[in-house]
Protein 1
Amino acid sequence: MYDWIADHQKVLSVCASFGSVIIWLVYAQLLYLGFRRQRSPRLIINRGRNKDVNALCLISNMSAEVVFIEYIIAELETSEGTITMDVTDFEQEYDEGDEDPVEQRSQSVPDQRSLSVMDNVRQGPMESGGFLHIGTFSELIQRLARDEGILMHGDAPHGDLEFTRITLRLIGIYGPENMPIGAERSFDLTVNADTLTLRPASWDTKRLASLWERRKLRKTLEKLNATDFSSASSFRHVDREENDENRSVAEQASKKPRCNDTA
């Protein structure tokens, strides 16, 4: 045995060196994957509690560090255009008499008041492993439709108008990094017996974390901050356009000179 080792000493030395290189490469790869995992932000957009439009829109931070949420943009695609709105602040409406004296007294407590602020403002840091919700998908759709003046019949639009897809887009800052990060996910909408059904368009949330995407997000973030963006729309009101066209045709017809018969 010792004689065989002595005879093949050079070959065994080369094999040992080659094996050491492979081990170090594997170890370096594991270190790199661990570092990349810690530096890669991951935000999840999902539905919770239900599977239809009454489901909560959940946002989860699965990153290793804190993510500061800057903007939450909702985009509603319809058969007549697209409606885009900043839904970072959770809209809540109250009518007179909605709160009884007990609830009013509870709101006067500082802790309850701070909780109320957190329930209405979605801009801020989200801890690793934490989550929040921005209301139900139905509330988001109603909010977008109300901003555009669309008449609703339950959860579905009135008339021939159709809602086809709703997209949620997040823009935030990850840990100590200067460049923003983002995430987006779309949900298809279909009408079933005057109610909207909700189905994810993809199995996972799309991460916007590449260098090109982050530069694009930075330009978008600068534009949003400079213009105080709240909503935008390419929605086309067909009924209004038809009424305007009919009105213009009638006005043009009334302005045409009439020929009088001469005796």
Protein 2
Amino acid sequence: MTFSRPFAIALLTTTCIFAGAVQADDPPSKGEQALKYRKSLYQVMAWNFGPMGAMAQGKVPYDAAEFAKRADRVALIAPMLSEGFPAETRNLPHSELKPAMWANRADFDAKMKNLVDRSATLATVAKTGDFAQSKAAFFDTADTCKACHDKYKNE
């Protein structure tokens, strides 16, 4: 395949300009990537937690299969959350963490472990299809989330 000289020059010029523009943008830092990861996980968590809450509060009819599916997802996501809190995210803009979290990291980590444990219990209980037990496990898990948010999240 042959190109005319003007076409080849235009192609080369466009390629160089585009390559320069791509290189001019700094790639996101490890902290920025972790913050995006963290926010994404919380978004997925909320997407699955919300319908369970609506069922538990009687706002929508209880659907045992749907509740169990969403509880499984929450239990899968919960252990991933702690990865989104490396030190590189400490003073990033758009982080909703209170500075107290960094001063109380051991307590924060314990609360995250509690969330992992409670969400695993929620998933197990939800598989039984028992609404009363699922509802109780849901609110137990929600209280675990709230305990961390109240102490460490700017809302």
Protein 3
Amino acid sequence: MVKNNVGCADKPAGDIDLQRTLTISPIHANSDDITLQIDAQETLQGNTAPLTAEGCKPPPQPRQVSATHPGLVLKPGEWSTWQIVDKNPSLTYKVRATLATAAQ
């Protein structure tokens, strides 16, 4: 939950419940590469809100973002990035996958 100061009095109000839901499914894995399907849903708040003609701050509006990556290919143990939103605000996921050894 994010609190914002709004109105001409710049008082706390206009709360936004920021949420993130990620679903990550491995669709291929071996010692050379790992492929993940990623579904993402985000509730974001922009970096700036326009002022009214009187110079007052209106309540910020939440921004809903949904994205799907059908096959992000990773080298085991190495980091990769997937940019979903490039500005206001930017949103980039940093992803890494490793293979686990089966217990005997």
